[in-house]
């Protein structure tokens, strides 16, 4: 029993260290040696538990995706909040999560391009289509507020929140804006994206 406890503690320590380094340096610039130094754990132990930086990154990002959906499910299935309130909360959750996990967009693209989408992710997306949030959007469509496929709404929320993070390095390295200005723009988008989505839906 004691051995199992030690193993769990060591794995968690490595994952916490890896997440901190990935967030600080990015996936490409991070080495296994960086992670072992952050965790204050022997390099061979990191390799023993996780085999490679790629495996560790995939595990952390998969857990991050699940944590995001765990946070979102109560929002999209709350019968007491309006559609407008749900949109504002969803945008805030997405942006806050990505701001704390800047490699998340990279992970998503790699998953999509490799065809290795996690089954849990597919299940969570399907659950979104059955949520109170989806029903509220469909009710608006039935009332004639808009005439396009309701899936566009979720696609737009995701793309409007995720894509700016893809452009982050480009706009910063081109000296268009600095990191502080970029963060201010992202904060602005927490307010602006709900406005744009609501305009599409014809609601306040």
UniProtKB/TrEMBL annotation:
Portion annotated as DNA-binding: 31-50
Originating species: Mucilaginibacter agri
Domain HTH tetR-type: 8-68
Keyword terms: DNA-binding
Molecular-function GO terms, alphabetical: DNA binding
Protein name, UniProt field: TetR family transcriptional regulator
Record-linked PANTHER family: ACREF/ENVCD OPERON REPRESSOR-RELATED (PTHR43479), ACREF_ENVCD OPERON REPRESSOR-RELATED (PTHR43479:SF11)
